[in-house]
Amino acid sequence: MPLILEVCVDSTESALAAVKAGADRLELCSNLGLGGGTTPSLGLLKSIRKVAPIVPIMIMIRPRTGDFVYTEAEFDVMIEDIRYFRENDVQGVVFGVLTPEGDVDVARTQRLVSEALPLQVCFHRAFDMTPWHQLSQIDGLTRILTSGQGTTATSANSLDVLKDLLDLAKYQDTRIEILPGSGINSFTVGALCQALLPHGLHEVHMSGGHWTDGASIWRRDGMGMGVGGASEWGVWRTNTSAIRAVKDAIDSFKV
């Protein structure tokens, strides 16, 4: 079996580019270039379904950028969004909830998992900021997106953590997939696969995105609608060649 490539996207254009380049699954967000992504709209999901009706889609459930400690009002929004998307042809949802002390909020996470079932559930990279053993207390998780608790999944320390996580999932039969992400590109994915395949790697996650110049020709001096700097008037887009290069690389490996 080939390795699965998941690509995170935040537009119809990026979704189509990723699928054409060989993505096996999409993680759908909004605002991907502005702090890691937030919950997308139903309109975006339906637009992508018109151009990519078959590809599995995981929906980011994150009411805002910033930390992963949510107010009661924000948590209620997450529950409602899960209910909304559960009825709209998605494979699953992606979220992460922490306590102010940096632990997994086990009670809230279990509540969200229960709302999402029978969909797949991925705990996202909030995992990398917390003691990872806590997720073993939660029933119903499908996978964990993680950089190995480092800034990228491809550093030596991160690879060691990812090996431990994969071994734990395999030998304890937790049935939770470990999904490495962050820093994965055509230059790093080969070494990552060589290091992790003996430990049970089945899938990898990447963005492959970059800022492109927007279509506005007239731009008022000193003003903008973006995040400042080079991306002030920019649009975040998936790079087809970046996705295809990683897909070609991982297809040379077998699970």
Question: How would you describe this protein?
Answer:
Helix 2 (42-51) links the parallel strand 2 (25-28) and strand 3. The chain has 7 helices and 10 strands. It has an 8-stranded parallel β-sheet. Strands 9-10 form a two-stranded antiparallel sheet. The protein has helices at 12-20, 42-51, 72-86, 106-116, 156-171, 189-196, 240-251; strands at residues 4-9, 25-28, 57-60, 92-95, 120-123, 143-146, 177-180, 203-206, 209-213, 234-238. It is 32% helix and 17% strand. The radius of gyration is 18 Å and the shape is globular. Belongs to the CutC family. It holds the Pfam family CutC. It comes from Suillus plorans.
List the keywords:
alpha/beta, two-stranded antiparallel ribbon, eight-stranded parallel β-sheet, 255 residues, 7 helices
Question: Which secondary structure elements does this structure contain, and how are they paired or packed?
Answer:
Blueprint: E1 4-9, H1 12-20, E2 25-28, H2 42-51, E3 57-60, H3 72-86, E4 92-95, H4 106-116, E5 120-123, E6 143-146, H5 156-171, E7 177-180, H6 189-196, E8 203-206, E9 209-213, E10 234-238, H7 240-251
Parallel strand pairs: 1-2, 1-8, 2-3, 3-4, 4-5, 5-6, 6-7
Antiparallel strand pairs: 9-10
